[in-house]
From TrEMBL:
Keywords: Membrane, Protein transport, Transmembrane, Transmembrane helix, Transport
Localization: Membrane
GO cellular component: cytoplasm; endomembrane system; membrane
Cited PANTHER family: VESICLE TRANSPORT PROTEIN (PTHR23137:SF29), VESICLE TRANSPORT PROTEIN-RELATED (PTHR23137)
Any single GO BP term: protein transport
Transmembrane stretches, start-end: 37-68, 88-108, 120-142, 148-170
Functional summary from the UniProt entry: May be involved in fusion of retrograde transport vesicles derived from an endocytic compartment with the Golgi complex.
Name of this protein: Vesicle transport protein
Family statement: Belongs to the SFT2 family.
Superkingdom field: Eukaryota
Length: 186
């Protein structure tokens, strides 16, 4: 967009482009400020959806546990995951995907996909997408509450592993930490 403004104003002065000012595959003509606002709004909305659904879940769990005084049978029925797994999975997964996709406002969708399918994180991306699809299948098609809970747990773990792929040596450190924590040798 700034190139068009530069051309129309007749200013031939070269300037450095930041990652926010690069063209995003010609699909979007948002200014850098608008991209930052869109990124922030998308990220906050996604995290809010995930946090609110999980917070509501924990709140129900604690309240029911206190009221029922450790009667766990009816407690499980009152949780939103068990009561309405479709609603939980849809809200959680939509928030999850919204938060992950928020960076496409900063770097563009083409570059985002290129980074997702980079050889360093292709397996993490495939596992993450597979877990998202698995969670939706378990909730929408199979209607199994237990499978839905396991699929959400796998989705959270896959999201963490995918996110760690962007931090240098983070996956190696987490792997070594888990090996040390789970080591059974004395």
């Amino acid at each position: 967009m700034w190139k068009l403004n530069q051309f129309l104003s007749g200013d031939d002065e070269e300037r450095e482009e930041s990652f926010l000012e690069e063209e995003s595959d010609g699909l979007c003509s948002l200014s850098p400020t608008q991209r930052m606002y869109a990124f922030a709004a998308s990220l906050v909305a996604g995290l809010a959806l995930m946090f609110l659904v999980c917070r509501f879940e924990v709140y129900l769990f604690v309240c029911c546990w206190i009221v029922l005084k450790h009667k766990m049978c009816s407690l499980c029925d009152s949780l939103i995951v068990f009561a309405k797994p479709i609603k939980f999975v849809l809200l959680f997964t939509f928030g999850n995907v919204l938060a992950v996709g928020s960076t496409s406002f900063l770097i563009g969708p083409g570059r985002q996909l290129g980074m997702m399918f980079d050889p360093a994180r292709i397996y993490a991306t495939a596992i993450y997408i597979g877990c998202v699809v698995l969670a939706l299948i378990c909730a929408l098609l199979i209607h199994s509450k237990i499978l839905t809970v396991f699929a959400i747990i796998f989705e959270i773990c896959a999201l963490i592993w995918y996110s760690l792929s962007y931090i240098p040596l983070a996956r190696r450190m987490v792997s070594n930490l888990m090996i040390r924590l789970c080591d059974t040798e004395l």
